[in-house]
Amino acid sequence: xxxxxxxxxxxxxxHHSSDSGYMELRLQKTKSHLLNLINGDLxxxxxxxxxxxxxRSFENGGxxxxxxxxxxxxxLTAQDQMEKAxxxxxxxxxxxxxxxxxxxxxxxxxxxxxxxxxxxxxxRYQREVATKEQVEFLKDLNDFISKKYNDxxxxxxxLSFNELDKTMINTMGSQTSHLLPRxxxxxxxxxxxxxxxxxxxxxxxxxxRADIFLKDPLHYEEVIHDLYKRVKDKSHGIHAAAGVKxxxxxxxxTGILAHEAIGHPAEADLVxxxxxxxxxxxxxxGTDLVNMVDLAHTYNGQELPVPVYIDDEGVEGRDxxxxxxxxxxxxxxxxxxxxxYGHNSTGNARAFDxxxxxxxxxxNTMILPGESKLEDMIASIDDGYYFLQSSNGQADLTSEFxxxxxxxxxxxxxxxxxxxxxxTISGVAFDMLATVDMVSDxxxxxxxxxxxxxxxxxxxxxGPSLKCRLHVGGRS
Amino acid sequence: MSLESISANALNFLKEEGADQAQVISSHTxxxxxxxxxxDFTLLRSVEDQSCDFTAIKEHKKGSYSVSxxxxxxxxxxxxxxxxxxxxxxxxxxxxxxREEDQVTKGHExxxxxxxxxxxxxxxxxxxxxxxxxxxTYPQIGLRSVGIxxxxxxxxxxxxxxxxxxxxxxxxxxxxxxxxxxxDKSSSxxxxxxxxxxxxxxxxxxxxxxxxGDKFKHTVSHLxxxxxxxxxxxKAIISPQCWNGFIQMINGHLGTSSLLAGTSKLQGKIxxxxxxxxxxxxxxxHSPLFAIPSIxxxxxxxxxxxxxxxxxxxxxxxxxxxxxxxxxxxxVSNFSGHLYMxxxxxxxxxxxxxxxxxxxxxxxxxxxxNSNGDFSGIAKNSFIIKDGKIAQPLSETMISxxxxxxxxxxxxxxxxxxxxxxxxxPHVACDGISVS
Lengths: 476, 436
Fold this sequence. Notes:
The structure holds two protein chains of two kinds. Chain A is α+β, with helices and mostly antiparallel strands. Chain A contains nine helices and 26 strands. Chain A has helices spanning about 1-15, 80-100, 130-150, 220-235, 250-265, 270, 335-340, 375-380, 430, and strands at about 20-40, 40-60, 60-70, 115-120, 155-170, 175-195, 195-205, 245-250, 290-295, 300, 300-305, 320-325, 325-330, 350, 360, 365, 385-395, 400-410, 415-420, 425-430, 440, 445, 450-455, 455-460, 460-465, 465-470. In chain A, the strands form six sheets. In chain A, strands 1, 2, 3, 4, 5, 6 and 7 form a seven-stranded mixed beta sheet that branches. In chain A, strands 13-12-9-16-25-22 form a six-stranded mixed beta sheet. Chain B is an alpha+beta fold. Chain B contains ten helices and 21 strands. In chain B, strands 9, 10, 11, 12, 13, 14, 15, 16, 17, 18, 19, 20 and 21 form a 13-stranded mixed beta sheet that branches. In chain B, strands 1, 2, 3, 4, 5, 6, 7 and 8 form an eight-stranded mixed beta sheet that branches. The longest helix of chain B has 18 residues, at about 120-135. The chains are: A alpha+beta, B alpha+beta. Chains A and B meet through strand 2, strand 3, helix 2, helix 3 and strand 7 of A and strand 2, strand 3, helix 2, strand 5 and helix 7 of B. Strand 3 of chain A pairs parallel with strand 2 (about 40-60) of chain B, so a sheet runs across the interface.
């Protein structure tokens, strides 16, 4: 199928006017499946599959994009489908011409001539699990949890699957066909204590379809017990004291810090828009212990949860070393901005659905481990907090950021103390990195959430535990 | 194939496959987007989407499936898949497809509003004029992104109980994201948006830089933002756009998920006073105050104007058919868009004058509040209010409080109201916000 689709796209590209600039064509199927079980009631049992074709052209610094779902992506070689797709291609080309006229200062920009091919072996993703099997799994898991921990007020289990299936070619000669499936299992427990309801969510995630989670409930015994213990601790928790504190951020929190606070400001489109990271290239922004990367597909010989071997502009996915020994080293880019800044292309241009244009997006963003032991890090703090889990996070171009913290413990005289209630941490990323004085030797990566930047996107992030100083919100 | 034909075929396929109850929504969407970033136009994007959403109930089991291929063969396959998804579920008598008796008001079965095609020339000129005027009036403002989208959305709803509705709506959405910069300093981003249906005089006035004047001035002043030197707990004035976020957080406690999970702080409180008399929130899906009406929910229930909080008293949950049945409630009531809060009697400047030490919150970047409503986060685009004046632009400032204490503490709402085609909200003055 991939070969046929690429042949059909190549035939279509022949209709692209030779005096026009760069063009790319993409066929995509996007699948999603959501099961949501609350206290044993199935609240959602929804699947979807969107399919379509898109075309994008680049002329004098302006982009023209057109897409349609009315084209049968499984039957593109049929004459009527080819004709419809040709109209979409021509519309994108016309839009490119329009942009050239509308722009105040059309640019004489040549996109870098980079060509790469990646045809994925899809046999690794052959197994599609029937919905019935997935529902039964959730019900068994719910029964297991409810019987063992009968003081929980509510148990919510969500199984969420998303898969991006793309075939793309461009005028540079790049071509690709690949799948990116991601499944996440969310366990949310709520417990009531003294009239107050306290909740905690544990996200599990990985590259693959639902089969990666469909295991006997006993397999999750430890995860379930840890989540129960934490929500129980939290139900007796105290409010964090507000102010600037010594903190240890566990890997899940470090990951969101890497993504939100440092990763976004280091995206070349946001640098062009005035991100403070534009002032820091080759400057010291953190202690020598800070090393941060956005990896394309592999770490230490292991494939990462969001492997991007080629991006949606047909550029090979390359690792970006954002911070090396505390020095800020580079941006994540697309073809246009690699030319604008004169940097090597990194392969970060990614689109979520067939009707989305590629934007600069992160892939697997992480702070790299150090050599410290977590217990030594805790022992080094006289009065602070150990933050284990976070909820949402945001940052802006000044690198000022905030994350919600949903689980943590106070640290008193080098020892863990009482749990805390939900709080928020904030700071300025490039100030905070200068306070990192211990980095643990562990590593955890998660791909459970979506990044939102005009479109949704599947990303992963992670890291070790960090010791640093940050502003903690709370009740004075 | 017309949307009507797609829906009719799809519903027949569902019935043939054994659905006891079913609904189908066929839709067709055209989008034209023109985008300007930093210093020039960057993208013209056209999207044509068609889809068919199937929902089937069989032996009290429910499933849904959505596809974008709508030829007969694809619809038949999709109907089989939807039934298979439903059969894989679990039986629950609370699942339902809308019947006549489920309706809470009479609705229109054919609805058309707004322009039917994009005016690209006007879209281009509007952005050009906006950019030119802002550059002349506010040279320190950097327009990071300005965009206009035209959306034409058509759908056809059909269900097995005979309900059939056709709708066609066209509208524009203008959005702008900006900050201020000066030498190596740059401020936080701020943004605004406007939904409208015609490029008329009214819209030109709404897009004039004067309307954004206070926002632009505030953004420029944030080039010199710094931390406040002491923490306090006291009065706050919340901007209308920020207040919208707080309303969404509160309304989250009225939805089926939190009610079923037993995590809602508002459960069992219908008819009770939960906020001050100034806390009055309505949803007005048909009001001309808003650019485009919302006529029907995704479950086929015609919308009506509702009062969610009547001068502090909780009047309704926000539940669909499943939530109504599961929780044994009287009516479907999940109409929570088109938020309306009436103008107050206090001028905004008098609200400021009334405060000796407080905070004007322009934007809140915070974690999701916990089940009890405790929230904390950064006050973005915000100012300290000192001795009755907007004083210091703030950076790195955390605020915290409790949603349910906040709504009880509201003591004034502004005479001036923010409207953007989707919202009608005043500034809100409250107490008990901790600043650190």
